[in-house]
Amino acid sequence: MALIPYDDRDGHIWMNGKLMPWRDCKVHFMTHALHYGGAVFEGVRCYNGQIFKINEHSQRLIDGCKIMDIKFDYTVEQVNQACIEAVRANNITDGYLRPLVWRGAEQIGVGATEAKTHFAVAAWDWPQYYKGDLLEKGIKVCTSKWRRPAPDTAPVHAKASGLYMICTISKHAAEKLGCNDALMLDYRGHVAELTSANLFMVKDGALHTPTPDCFLNGITRQTVIELAHQLGIPMHVRTIMPDEIKTADEFFATGTAAEITPIGQIDDTFYKVGPVTRKIREAYSALVRGGVVEKVA
Ligand SMILES: Cc1ncc(COP(=O)(O)O)c(C=O)c1O
Questions:
Q1: Tens digits of per-residue pLDDT, 193-241?
Q2: Is the Cβ atom of 255 under 6 angstroms away from ligand 1?
Q3: What predicted TM-score, i.e. pTM, was given to this entire model?
């Protein structure tokens, strides 16, 4: 299927308070965010026309701006409203939303106190990140040479654009090796996450996931922890060392885009898509399509 560039599509983007034709949503070359990484974003999904965990995503966007010292005076309800308008304007039933806040072009240089804040939301049809066979066999992952930074080295709890530079180069390196994604350790050498998803390991019927002290505590991750409790699956949030990877029974990744993605291989160790992964995947799909969600209509 031919790739449709993201700047050449039909539809409308909600930008700074109004719906604009998709192709007209341009930013200037001197935009501060483009030069210095001053941007915070969200990835949100919509199922059956309803936005899943909209309040949590809007709150994380606001919190991320605060961490990044970006002036952003929208309330959760106002961010929600922008998302709802973007979904409605593009007639999205099952899709993905990309809210983004960024520093404008009033000032160039490291300081940005004079730069105005911009906010836009795009929404488009994007049913599944990984498809078919990959979801049956699990994706292939290899360990990156890049590590998640310490919390006093980068704003690790904001979904800030700049943090993704090591994710993109890790993903490219993994793809060159024939893998789908990269596993990232943290600055201490502990197991952390993938390039845009959190990680869960199954061992003897129990779930284990790393403590999110230097990476995003994903909304899907938090949902899976709640589901594990509801399903009576023992759940351990703890430090995971790389030598434990080989001894695990199952692995899966979680994220708004990735949803529940089984992992079939990490470096030279293979895993089956086992019963715990399947149970969590089924429970997650039932929840997003019928559980506690915010109504768009
Ligand atoms: C680096 C990173 N970690 C984890 C996640 C998972 O977060 P969530 O479940 O909130 O989408 C994402 C995706 O947003 C991500 O980009």
A1: 999 999 999 999 999 999 999 999 999 999 999 999 999 999 999 999 9
A2: yes
A3: 0.95
Could you tell me how many residues make up the chain?
Answer: 297
Residue with tokens 């049809």: 125
Q: Are 197 and 258 in contact (CB under 8 A)?
A: yes
Nearest CA to ligand 1 atom 4: 197
Asked if residue 147 and residue 112 are part of one domain, the reply reads no
167 found inside a domain? yes
Q: Is 216 in the pocket of ligand 1 (CB under 6 A)?
A: yes
Same-domain status, 99 and 165: no
Q: Is residue 7 part of a domain?
A: no
Q: Which of 67, 100, 125 is the last residue of a domain?
A: 125
Ligand 1 centre distance from Cα of residue 106 (Å): 31
Choosing from 72, 101, 125, the residue where a domain stops is: 125
Q: Is 171 known to be catalytic?
A: no
- Best probe residue, ligand 1, of 168, 216, 225 (max atoms within 8 Å of C-beta): 216
Domain membership of residue 236 as a residue range:
132-290
Beta strand spans in 16-169 (E): 18-21, 39-41, 44-47, 50-51, 95-103, 117-125, 139-148
In tens, the pLDDT along 96-130 reads 999 999 999 999 999 999 999 999 999 999 877 88
* SS3 category, 4: coil
The predicted-structure confidence for 255-291, as pLDDT tens digits, reads as follows: 999 999 999 999 999 999 999 999 999 999 999 998 5
